[in-house]
């Protein structure tokens, strides 16, 4: 028997590796290389002639043992080669969703451990409806809604910070081109309606249909449609006096006699 400890016999066993692939029902392409894998194994690489697997290779690992010339099949695996067509890295859906992706009919559930949300005490005003001496249920319901009762989760401190920073840095924040060119800030505008809750001091909604109507704007945002902007006085240009067409003097001139013809 021949000793194969040097691996040379395994590296030269291209036909055995190809036959192993054919037996598995594959049609391998050209043999690319043989690589020693330790003292008693060698890997043979063949082009994979498979539709949709451009640049991929079949790897056939052959093994031997000391004191015998027998070569055995250890493993067959399909591996990407240099320049192989690969699928993009998998990204969890929660990390793929971006602002503006939500379309009509879509459902987007917040994760149970979403850091932007915290558990809330759920309460209703039902208990007040059956006691004649209790406050009016409509009034109670209004207060309950104001403080957030009735919702299972509320915006967390981290969620408020993240939201405030996004709005502050966005299109309706103080750093936008519109705000930089505005003479006044939204916090002094009659069209500015402050938000309720923890964000009240910094943000509100614009109600001016000719400005940022319906958008949440920073209190430090501003535009040219501020309620204190004064309209031009319309006094005209002082460079020229008005033309008085009622002071015309009409003068008739007699026509000169036509020159005699020779």
From TrEMBL:
Cite the InterPro entries for this sequence.
DUF3027 (IPR021391)
Note the Pfam families from the entry. Answer: DUF3027
Q: Which domain of life does the UniProt lineage start with?
A: Bacteria
Q: What is this protein called?
A: DUF3027 domain-containing protein
Q: Which organism is it from?
A: Gordonia paraffinivorans NBRC 108238
């Amino acid at each position: 028997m021949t000793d194969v400890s040097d691996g040379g016999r395994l590296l030269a066993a291209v036909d055995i590796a190809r036959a192993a692939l054919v037996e598995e029902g594959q049609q391998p392409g050209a043999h690319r290389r043989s690589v020693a894998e330790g003292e008693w194994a060698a890997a043979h690489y063949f082009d994979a002639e498979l539709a949709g697997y451009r640049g991929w290779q079949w790897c056939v690992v052959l093994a031997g043992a000391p004191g015998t010339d027998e070569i055995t099949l250890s493993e067959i695996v399909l591996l990407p080669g240099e320049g192989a067509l690969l699928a993009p890295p998998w990204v969890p859906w929660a990390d793929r969703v971006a602002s503006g992706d939500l379309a009509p009919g879509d459902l987007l559930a917040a994760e149970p451990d979403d850091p932007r949300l915290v558990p809330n005490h759920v309460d209703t005003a039902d208990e007040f409806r059956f006691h004649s001496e209790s406050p009016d249920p409509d009034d109670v319901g209004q207060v309950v809604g104001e403080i957030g009762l009735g919702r299972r989760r509320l915006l967390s401190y981290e969620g408020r910070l993240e939201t405030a920073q996004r709005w502050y840095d966005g299109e309706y924040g103080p750093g936008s081109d519109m705000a930089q060119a505005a003479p006044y800030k939204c916090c002094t505008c009659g069209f500015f309606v402050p938000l309720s809750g923890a964000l009240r001091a910094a943000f509100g909604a614009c109600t001016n249909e000719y400005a940022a109507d319906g958008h949440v704007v920073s209190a430090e945002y501003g535009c040219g449609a501020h309620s204190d902007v004064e309209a031009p006085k319309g006094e005209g240009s002082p460079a020229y006096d008005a033309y008085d067409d009622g002071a015309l003097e009409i003068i008739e001139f007699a026509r000169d006699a036509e020159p005699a013809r020779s």
